[in-house]
Amino acid sequence: MSGPTPTATSPAIVVPGTSTAALTLAPAGTPAATETPAPTPVLASTLPPEPSPIPPSDPQGDVGAYESGTSVEGVPAGVDIRAASVGADLQVVLQPTEGVLAELAGWATEDEVLLWISLYDPVPDPPAVFTDWVVVLDLDGDVATGRPAGEARINPDLGYEAAIGVSYNNASGKYEPYFLVWNPTQANLASQPEEPRFTMNEARTLIGLALSLETLTQNVDQTTGVTLVPEGVKGRAAVVSWAGGQRVVDFYPNRPD
């Protein structure tokens, strides 16, 4: 199978891919396969071979049905979130200067936003079903701006302007990073031409995402009119996949319900 699929025996892989809408962000639907040629992987030599321990923050085994949140069986590996670069209070530091995971230290440049999601179980190589890892960002911390709160499962308490993530499209066999911005005029998420970089650690339990802060700020401002408030940024991480023919999801932090 072709495509930039990280392997468990190689260092983390940084892949510029093809944008795709995240299932976390849409009320329903299955992603269509893409035929975009796979880019050439670039090995990230800055990551150490051994994973750094991440204190468990999200309960293990809390993946639920997408619509109802009820527990489900047969959840694929690589979906259950252990922790993420979002605080329990939804606060997000876009460019952390301390507390960066050892495996991501030095990976993002000083001009980039750094986001990550860690998992209890390693991502299969390759995943058997479509899976989406995403972080949504409310760049001004104002629930009255951005995507209306409650419009999607991921934002009952956020008005988010941007979504940064990576999907594994099992139809094409490719990892597809994407950067989406909420367009209030069209009332939908617009795919941006700039794509984030992503990396997966050797243990396949950590997803890292990096995007130019200038790109994030400008694209959101031009599309939504929202200005970045660094100290007010909020967000939520999610992993969406399929089990037994139904969509399943894990949120971090969990929804307030």
Which helices and strands appear, and what pairs or packs with what?
Layout: E1 13-14, E2 42-43, E3 64-65, E4 81-84, E5 112-119, E6 131-138, E7 162-169, E8 174-183, E9 188-191, E10 197-200, E11 206-212, H1 213-224, E12 234-243, E13 246-252
Antiparallel strand pairs: 1-2, 3-13, 4-5, 5-11, 6-7, 6-12, 7-8, 8-9, 10-11, 12-13
DSSP helical segment count: 1
Name the CATH architecture. Answer: Sandwich
Query: Percent range for helical residues?
Result: under 10%
CATH topology: Immunoglobulin-like
Radius of gyration: 17 Å
CATH class descriptor: Mainly Beta
* Adjacency order of strands in the biggest sheet: 3-13-12-6-7-8-9
What overall form do the CA principal axes indicate?
A: globular
Rounded mean pLDDT is 84
Q: Largest sheet at a glance?
A: 7 strands, antiparallel
Task: Give the number of DSSP strands.
Answer: 13
Q: Which structural category do the helix and sheet elements fall into? A: mainly beta
The poorly predicted ranges are: 1-24, 26-51
In N-to-C order, the SSE pattern is EEEEEEEEEEEHEE
Query: Alpha-carbon distance between the termini?
Result: 41 Å
Relative strand content: 25-35%
Any idea how many domains? 1
Structure write-up:
The chain is 5% helix and 30% strand. By secondary structure, it is mostly beta strands. It has a single domain, classed as Immunoglobulin-like, CATH 2.60.40. The strands form three sheets. The chain has a seven-stranded antiparallel sheet. The radius of gyration is 17 Å and the shape is globular. The N and C termini lie far apart (41 Å).
